[in-house]
Design goal:
50% of the residues lie in helices and 11% in strands. By secondary structure, it is an alpha+beta fold.
């Protein structure tokens, strides 16, 4: 006798979001988040012509990123290598290990403390240029401000005259990124195509900025900045200085990655604060205290728990590095699942940071107080998320070397500016997502500035 099941049949093959995951970069963050929220473990299948595996479990995501062998970096890093050369972001193997060892002193806590004062000074100067009622795009403002900070810390000099050159070249490179990611993109970058010419022209503009600063630093000696550190370091084994081309690659990497990620983070933080009166009120309460103002002036960013919570919550929901990929170089066993050689493995900090299984029923809500313990202290473990659910800076040997620098910079800039200013966003405005190398707000963050000393809290 034949029986018919009353249960609906499960769709054959991988979920639709997986099949389309790599076909449209604009839709990747939300598709990855849908896969992570609906599945456990590792979800595999094909997206277009390639095999894909999404790490839906936080522990497995971290396991993949901390594996010492069996994977290589994804296509996005291959594209970036044509721009940044062999800097820390794009190098691998022995070169990456050696460069990380040489660059690490530039991010020593003592150096970061010195950089903190530069960040506060830059923010104070920007604040003094703003006026009540100004209409401006905070995404643009944060980009130029963080470039100013990077200039003072990495270059040890004023690069405001170069801001437009850097911004225009970087914007054009980012606009070309989706095209370069296509199957024929890397090939087009190797031959005399229009794509290659535009990339080379943009890189040449950035190189001119880097070269004259490095030359000046070679002539003047150690000024306490990162370029001075790079020029002064010696390989422990050989005693040799860093090659000139490698200095260029590292400086350009720090210039672009260093200011872009923090600018994007701050842009989203301003937008979310404008939408969340309760969080803005909590921030105002912290910044109105003499203790907080003393912490800002002294560059003690760790003593600003609410401001740090705002930064962390923004990193959770709007991580600038929204996706990380690895390509397997051999068959791997991950969480009891065999992932074949040549598979693109996807870790989505955007999706992992929004998964209700890790963050609770209010995972989609931007709520900075989840990062504060019962005594109001900042605690990265306070939300109770599993290890691997919060990966804004990656993990393992490739964890972002500038993570502490970025958090310091974002915290102090936000505190210094928010003490003086509120940002009003038009009701119903949606910045949209522009997921390129970073997760930019597609329409910027246009606001009206209001003096924080006179503006009333916006109506809920």
């Amino acid at each position: 006798m034949t029986t018919t099941s009353t249960h609906p049949a499960r769709p054959a093959g991988p979920p639709p979001e997986l099949r389309r995951l790599l076909l449209n970069l604009d839709e990747m963050p939300e598709r990855a988040a849908a896969i992570v929220a609906a599945h456990d473990g590792v979800v595999q299948g094909r997206s277009g012509p390639v095999r894909v595996a999404v790490m839906c479990d936080p522990g497995l995501a971290r396991e993949l990123l901390t594996r010492p062998a069996g994977t290589t970096q994804g296509r996005g890093i291959m594209v970036l290598k044509t721009i940044l050369g062999q800097g820390l972001l794009t190098s691998s193997g022995d070169l990456h290990r050696r460069q990380r060892r040489l660059v690490q002193p530039a991010f020593h806590p003592g150096r970061i403390s010195a950089y903190a004062h530069d960040a506060v000074r830059a923010a104070r100067e920007r604040s003094a240029a703003w006026r009540d009622g100004d209409r401006l795009d905070l995404a643009e403002e944060m980009s130029s401000l963080t470039l100013d900070v990077v200039g003072r810390t990495i270059f040890g000099t004023d690069v405001t005259e170069d801001a437009r050159e850097v911004a225009e070249a970087q914007a054009d490179l980012l606009s070309l990124f989706p095209r370069a990611l296509r199957p024929t993109g890397l090939l087009a970058l190797r031959f005399p195509t229009r794509l290659r010419r535009r990339v080379r022209d943009d890189v040449a503009r950035l190189d001119r900025v880097v070269e004259h600063v490095v030359a000046a630093r070679r002539a003047s000696g150690d000024a306490g900045d990162m370029v001075s550190m790079l020029l002064a370091v010696r390989d422990e084994e050989t005693g040799e200085p860093m090659p000139a081309r490698q200095v260029r690659d590292e400086v350009l990497t720090l210039l672009l990655a260093g200011h872009e990620t923090t600018a994007v983070l701050l842009s989203w933080a301003w937008f979310e604060l404008a939408q969340t009166p309760s969080a803005r009120a909590a921030l105002d309460a912290e910044l109105s205290s003499s203790a907080a103002q003393g912490a800002v002036e002294a560059g003690r960013w760790q003593d600003l728990p609410v401001t740090r919570a705002v930064v962390a919550e923004t990193l959770r929901l709007r991580p600038p590095a929204h996706v990380t990929t690895r390509i397997t170089t051999e068959d791997l066993e991950i969480g009891g699942t065999t992932v074949r050689r040549g598979t693109i493995c996807v870790v989505s900090p955007y999706g992992l940071g929004r998964d209700p299984a890790s963050w609770g029923a209010d995972a989609a809500q931007w709520r900075p107080d989840r990062w504060l313990d019962a005594d109001g202290r900042y605690d990265e473990a306070a939300p109770g998320q599993p290890r691997g659910a919060f990966l804004p800076f990656g993990a393992g040997s490739r964890v972002c070397i500038g993570a502490a620098f970025a958090q310091m910079e974002a915290t102090l800039i936000l505190a210094a500016l928010a003490t003086q200013w509120r940002a009003e966003v038009e009701p119903g405005f949606d910045p949209g997502l522009q997921p390129l190398v970073t997760l930019r707000p597609r329409r910027g963050v246009p606001v009206t500035l209001r003096s924080a000393r006179t503006a009333a809290a916006p109506a809920r």
